[in-house]
Amino acid sequence: MTDTHDVVVHHETVVAGTPLDITDGGPDMVQFVDGEGTRLERTPANTPYAEIVEAMEPADARSMYRDLVLVRRLDAEGHALQRQGELGLWPSLLGQEAAQVGSARAMAPHDYAFPGYREHGVAWCRGIQPEQLLALFRGVDHGGWSPQEMNYHLYTIVIGNQMLHATGYAMGVQRDGAVGTGDPERDTAVMAFTGDGGTAQGDFNEAMVFAGVANAPVVFFVQNNQWAISEPNYKQFRVPPYQRALGFGFPGIRVDGNDVLAVYAVTKMALDNARNGLGPTLIEAFTYRLGAHTTSDDPTKYRSAAEVDIWREKDPIKRMRGFITQKGYADEEFFAGVDKEADELAVRVRSACQNMPEPEQSRMFDEIYVDPHPLVDGEKATFLAYQAGFDQEGGH
Amino acid sequence: MAMQKMSLAKGLNSGLRAAMEHDPKVLLMGEDVGKLGGVFRITEGLQKDFGEDRVVDTPLAESGIVGTAIGLALRGYRPVVEIQFDGFIYPAFDQIVAQLAKMHARSRGSLRLPIVIRVPFGGGIGAVEHHSESNEAYFAHTAGLRVVACSDPADAYWMIQQAIESDDPVMFYEPKRRYHERAEVDLDAGVRLGLHDARVVREGTQVTLLTYGPMVKTCLQAAAAAEQDGISLQVVDLRSLSPLDVDTITRVVKDTGRAIVVHEASTFLGMGAELAAEIQQECFHHLEAPVLRVGGYNIPYPPSRFEEEFLPGLDRILDAVDRSLAY
Ligand SMILES: Cc1ncc(C[n+]2csc(CCOP(=O)(O)OP(=O)(O)O)c2C)c(N)n1
């Protein structure tokens, strides 16, 4: 094991006492369940969150497991649909299911989230329908869902941009007096998702500054999946993201991103703190992107199979299944039932994709501005007249 | 009471105050906008009266200012952002063109971003590098944004309120070298012109000067000088760069048959290029001469000892008038 391990330690430099070992989250990492699903004892790192996990019911564990499996299936279907030419692109979340399901499930319905482009698991937990989720990747829409209805902003492709939107939104929540009132229906928190590469962006750092200064009710959730396309972490930062939070004036937590219970617990506490007026938190979910960056990527060009193998052992679903089994929270029938549901979901996703209506072409001129804009209105009129010309010729 | 003589800066200040009184969701944000009242004092006294939550001194980070304004707008606020100087807007360029301009369309109209970005622009104040630029064409090129420029105290007062009322994002250009020009403003007049209407500021019969922002005054001076030589110039303040009031522009150009576009920005791919193309398309048979452009040279804004030559002045404008009339 040691030999393989040497292959994947990216950087030997020790910064602030922490080597950037991409397979080991170190002693600060909050974890509740080991690789086999065995519930861990209290440690200094996990103790602050232990009560949250202890309060969870068997039914919570079962439904989290269900979400993990369904989200993985949704993702696999997205990947397959791209391969079959139904989608232009698909960024897979394979390996990051626990980070997304755990964090999303910690949110209250009236909390608001700002995703990047890989957060299909969060979208799932917010109730986004498959056809809404796929619209962007099929090229029929730049959005897909109503952000206000779902309290889930549109995907953001430009890395880091959404961190500021989340912070501004949280500053608005503050101004609305929807923080620290003690009323759980009123107090609101905001979540912002990005990857480890995103932490290098100016907007990420500006968001930390604004959030810290304003003490805004926002939780920054960094999914450290170890890679930014082909660039390993040591090309992105010299200290892990969670250690940076302190420099901006609020806490940073590293959590095992493949341990759904741990992710849920730390996010729940961070969101509660935000709602209660205690300000922002940065959570670094230490996880791994098992698949390619997107369907356009070829990870064999830049990373070793040995590294992927180590992480495959840390599979979040296997781990949760082990936990549930060991605890006796469910039987084989339950697991078989979830698998059957996953099969049904796959069929639903596929047909939702294939039956997605083609957009009316003239729609591209609509809703560019709220007030009338003569240039766009004129171009739309010209376009419609041009199209009508074809219709009259009987062709097209 | 209704008529008040005030500077353009005061017009903006009063307009901002009126907007903030009218709608509690209006917020001012920017660097030094609070106690100091902004480096040009446009927001002077507003923090004292409206509090730190409505006149927000932000960290020194332009992308952060615009990015958080987007979040605030999504939450139902109407942020009015001050960019300290034209040359410092570039760190926010990404948030403006990639997010602010597009989000309404991306959400198929369900999200509204009623944000005003105030940019003091143009030269002529003897400033150091990055304090005298005219970057309006970058934003006029981006669909989803509205780009307007005020040129006098009355427009400053009314237009800023209209811009804040608009549910679209507005880039609001303020001619910084005209901040201290004073004129009568009728505070009871109400809005007389749409936010996107061009305005004939001087009638004339021989050549139309199309301009905006700081060059409006320069063009009026040129028209007065030309009159001495018996030449009648018409001056149009475009006011809105996107959308352009093409109807007014083409109507008045058809009357004279001659048009010259005057602005401070470099001419290459500037507003003048668009206007010249639009006019030749719409007025081809009415034109007596090609549309001419008088603008900054195609160089970075030069050190201030050169700006007298760099900026269009009376001589260059009148020279263009002569060339136009020679056809
Ligand atoms: C501003 C910007 N630059 C470059 C890209 C192209 N790009 C897309 S994803 C990506 C890597 C992002 O890595 P990370 O933040 O770690 O997130 P991950 O994809 O691993 O979840 C890059 C460079 C982009 N979308 N935005």
Distance between the termini of chain B: 50 Å
Average the pLDDT over all residues of chain A and give the rounded result.
93
Number of helices of chain B: 12
Radius of gyration of chain B equals: 19 Å
Compute the number of strand runs of chain B.
Answer: 14
* Low confidence ranges of chain A: 1-7, 10-14
Bound molecules: thiamine diphosphate
How many DSSP E strands of chain A?
Answer: 9
What share of residues of chain A is helical? Answer: 40-55%
Distance between the termini of chain A: 64 Å
Strand order of the largest sheet of chain A: 3-4-5-9-8
Question: What global shape of chain B is seen?
Answer: globular
Structure class of chain B: alpha/beta
Shape summary of chain A:
globular
Helix and strand succession of chain A?
Answer: HEEHHHEHHHHEHEEEHEHEHHHH
- Individual helix count of chain A: 15
Please compute the radius of gyration of chain A using only Cα atoms: 22 Å
What is the quaternary state of this protein?
heterodimer
Low-confidence segments of chain B, given as residue ranges, are none
Briefly characterize the structure:
The complex is a heterodimer of chains A (396) and B (327). With 396 residues, chain A is of the alpha/beta class.
